[in-house]
Specification:
By secondary structure, the protein is α/β, with parallel strands linked by helices. Helix content is 36%, strand content 17%.
Amino acid sequence: MSRKANKIILIILAIPLVIFILGYLLTLGASVPQTVEQDPSIPHVTIKGVTFHSETFGNPENPVVIAVHGGPGDDYRPFLSLKALSDEFYVVFYDQRGTGLSPRVNAEELTFDLTVSDLNLIVDHYSHGEKVNLVGHSFGAMLVAPYLGKYPEKVDHAVLSEPGFLTTETAMKYMAYFASKVSNKDLSYYFQRIKTWFEILHINGPDEQARADYIYAHAGVSVGNKPRQTEYYCNGEYATGESVYWRRSALANQSIQNLGGKSEFVSIDVNGRPEFHFTKGVENFNRKVLFIASECNKIIGEEIQSIHMQSFPTAELAVIKGAGHDMFLGKPEEVVKVIREYLNE
């Protein structure tokens, strides 16, 4: 073989190595935050052996407002605008079990029903026997609804901000939309997946779920700083220009969504299809429920929330103008104003 041919072969063989080295060097700096388990200085509460990243604001003598964040697998960071209520209320934030900055747990501890039970732990811990006010957003609202059905006597006011689905009817619409998103992947998605693969080469902890969490946050629910669910947001963009979370959990997202036959709120029909009963028992909650929708959300906005309202004895819908699903970040003052007025009724 000639020298020229050998040189060409060496160049061809070197190209992947050069690409790898460049990819590795250009993605330095990727990291995943520690949880309470690694850093006990992070504010937290332990209730009956379960530890949650948690903060409280305001006078504990005031009526309690508990913020129930979205997901599954998100955290309460985008929800912090509710701190503005702490002048009148004792505002409680917590990252749900196994997500955010709460300690990571195994898949067996990540179920929908257990997440509802955890909300009851939080309620009982902070309520001191009094009724509480619940504000749930997205998946958090999907937890608050069945909680109202199980424990109507423990709740004074309930805010359901854009729950994804509460009934079989709205679940089918929701799942059809996400199925279309899974099958529709453009070049930017694959580029971000490759970039994220290089970035996780720099991640070594703080725990065994760190790399999966990083992939989920950067090339799963989001593609870089862009939402995959563009129809949820004004102009298809996050209000802040990026996704704002401390640390999302891939395992919580995957495990909690696996509802088939594993939840008291889900049944299987004769054809093997799931039926969802997240509004079971809500007729026993005799106070008005406030639903909130964002103007820009074309998937689970005003139309879907109008359907959800029909399951409740008394409900009102507020639409936040100029906002998308991340309304607590995009229009925080408007959202807090609507919630405050309702809580003071």
